[in-house]
Amino acid sequence: MTNKDAIAELARSLSDREHHLDVLISNAGIRRDPVVPCDVLSASMPELQSSMWSSRHSDWADTFCVNTTAHYFLSVAFLPLLAAASQVVLEDGRMGKDDGRGAIVMTSSCASMHNATNVDLTSYATSKAATDHLVKLLAAKFSRFHVRVVGINPGC
User: Fold this and answer.
1) Which one is the CATH code of 4-152: 3.40.50.300, 3.40.50.720, 3.40.630.30, 3.30.930.10?
2) CA 152 to CA 81: how far, in whole Å?
3) Residue, of 99 and 62, whose pLDDT is higher
4) Do the Cβ atoms of 127 and 68 come closer than 8 Å?
5) Euclidean distance between CA atoms 108 and 131, whole angstroms
6) Reduced 3-state DSSP string for the chain
7) Backbone φ and ψ of 38, nearest 5°
8) Can you tell me the distance from the alpha carbon of 22 to that of 87, in angstroms, rounded to the nearest whole number?
9) 126 with 111: CB under 8 angstroms?
10) What is the pTM of this model?
11) Backbone angles phi, psi at 131, to 5 degrees
12) Cβ-contact 60, 32 below 8 angstroms
């Protein structure tokens, strides 16, 4: 999920065997908590700051790489196969796009919309909010190829 070349190879390998891809389910997520935990709802300001400051830059980068960036590269890599699915002529003469083919479903999280928890989910919630926005951006870019992009937020 975090290696762009591996994602490209996966898309190439599938393209060698298949002419189209009806649906891409892009489901990924990791959570990296601060090294110094605290109850964010009751911690004093110094405790909260200490906990938040203990977050590692690499943990934020890893979280975004898996939770957001992987969705982007998977979607881009599989775009030709998804667009081909939308153009498939079905047995009844309808196009694949009329049957919902050529769709990307990205999994986000209800944490993208709120942080009603005593655990610091800042990097996770921020990455999932970015995924929510990525859905909108890719939907706008891919719509002219009849590829739909939708997001789900389990737990909401």
Assistant:
1) 3.40.50.720
2) 22
3) 62
4) yes
5) 6
6) CCCHHHHHHHHHHHHHHCCCCCEEEECCCCCCCCCCCCCCCCCCHHHHHHHHHCCCHHHHHHHHHHHHHHHHHHHHHHHHHHHHHHCCECCCCCEHHHHCCCEEEEECCHHHCCCCCCCCCHHHHHHHHHHHHHHHHHHHHHHHHCCEEEEECCCC
7) -160, 160
8) 10
9) no
10) 0.91
11) -65, -40
12) yes
DSSP lists the bridge partners of residue 95 as: 89
Q: What is the residue type of 60?
A: W
Average pLDDT, the chain: 93
Q: What angle do CA 40, 41, 42 make, to 5 degrees?
A: 95
The 10s digit of each residue's pLDDT in 106-130 is 999 988 988 667 778 889 999 999 9
Closest CA to 1 of 127, 143, 125: 127
Q: Where are the domains of the chain?
A: 4-152
pLDDT in tens, 72-96: 999 999 999 999 999 898 999 998 8
Under the banding of pLDDT at 50, 70 and 90, the label for residue 28 is: confident
pLDDT of residue 116: 64
What is the Cα–Cα distance from 43 to 38, expressed in whole angstroms?
Answer: 6
pLDDT computed for residue 62 by the predictor: 96
